[in-house]
Write the structure tokens for this entry.
Amino acid sequence: MGGVKTKFFNYGQEEIDTLKSMDKELGTAMERLGKVERLIIPDLFTALMHAMVSQLISAKAAHTIWQRMLDKLGEISPQNIAGQTVETIQSCGVTMKKASSMLAIAEKIAQGEFRLDELHQLPDKEAIRQLVSLKGVGEWTAEMLLIHGMERHDVVSWGDIAIRRGMIKLYGLPALTKEQFEEYRKRYSPLGSIASIYLWQISFE
């Protein structure tokens, strides 16, 4: 992640054992995979920008663009991003639409109109509701921030193709309906994010 401060998502044996007992198929896969680490970015603004970069593109492409942003723009802070032009942000490899959303969010946060840190006090649903009020932030992006920035423990994203693919592979399904997804999501609760970490891993195997 270049100069960005990262850490691993915080979970341990207790969560692993609980999740294994809640779902037999997932438990078998967890046994086989061992502990899967997931990098997160504790700084919420940086994590939000990273989630926006990752929208609708492959992890590999996102990594390349993110590296270019760090090299070209320097510190990923509201003040620094708000001081860039849309063209400079776009030149890192994001679409013009995405670049203008990123700039608008940076300006809003730099001016104190939106306080990301206050999201820590809110329940998941309310944090997502506030995040999607920002230009260019949809439900998937908000959910990614909850996992990869706020370390919330119970997020499973229907909008994430890799998570859906992980479920299809894990349970040997021909396809996945929203109803089936909801059933599994409820089964994993309140440890959905840890299930998501494993489903991502399974989907790329």
